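REQUEST ID: PR-0412
SUBMITTED BY: lab tech R.K.
PRIORITY: routine
TASK: structure prediction, single protein chain
INPUT:
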Amino acid sequence: MAVDAKAKALKAEGRDVIGFGAGEPDFATPGYIVAAGAEACADPANHKYSPAPGLPVLREAIAAKTLRDSAVAVDPAAVLVTNGGKHAVYSSILTLVDEGDEVLLPAPYWTTYPEPVRLAGGVPVEVPAGIENGFRVTVDQLESARTDRTKVLIFVSPSNPTGAVYPRSEISEIGRWAAEHEIFVITDEIYEHLTYGDAEHHSILEVVPDLRDHCVIVNGVAKTYAMTGWRVGWMIAPPDVTKAAAGLQSHMTSNVSNVSQMAALAAVSGGLAAVEDMRAVFNIRRVKIHQMLNEIPGVTCLEPEGAFYAYPDLRGLLGVELSGHTAATTLELADVILDVAGVAFVPGEAFGTPGYGRFSFAMDTDDMVEGITRIGNFVTG
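STATUS: complete
OUTPUT:
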């Protein structure tokens, strides 16, 4: 947030700043979805309160979409429509986690995950998933972190911020371990349709059906359909968890905007042609940014397999003089690069892994190339 605020301030002063911080597709919502939203605006039925857990027709469509895309059969009653994926994460954690419960959190992690754990009185237990293992945590690491207070594992594939995608075999191992110890898995599948090359998304509940009583799927329309601003997500959980979360939501926010729900209905009921077009563009950028980052002396970057982020190791740039500046941390490095080169990225401190940086390639391709070129020039002097 500090880097973002400074970038905006520099832009306001007239500086040419290129930002790699975007966590949203740089595409417009497909026209047929927008049209469904506009039509919903004109329907008086959508001007009133609706059921807090979501419009029944949307809950049914989400269940059908989950079977179609994830091969997981769910009862529409298990679906709770939320105000975006972040709300689904918060409600899932607040429903499951009690005072003193421990939540296993593979790092790097999306910045929001640990905060609702703390708000619920729980304890985030970071489990480092290092670059040497492709930013994927192992069962041995999880077992070493497990105690009699372990209640939940937060599992994410494809990953924000690293772009890592777990292969089916590793998902199976983790799922069977969680089922054996009756640990709840909150699986965030928001980037399910954004995978590249040979990488494939697999829902952990499809791979390990024995997790059905201990699994919460979090998803939404934001990334697949370029609908971040429409604020529609959902959670799919065991009946008692969904019922409790719905009760919480009834007092917290009541129903999600009916207009947004009708737009989401058009999205999940339609095809995936728009996301395929978007993914093709992301893939071109992914290959380019991976190549360019690795050409910078002192930088190592794994090839992103999913989402739209590259997560390079920047430790080789720390403690050395670059263009007359020496940074001891990636937080300092990000500040210096913003000042000198006019490029903003999110330092790894935000994701629990200092020494790294997140670069979104959900941005104009020419700007992306120019931004990485500037960083390369900063490093080489």
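NOTES: The chain has a mean pLDDT of 97.
REVIEWED BY: pending
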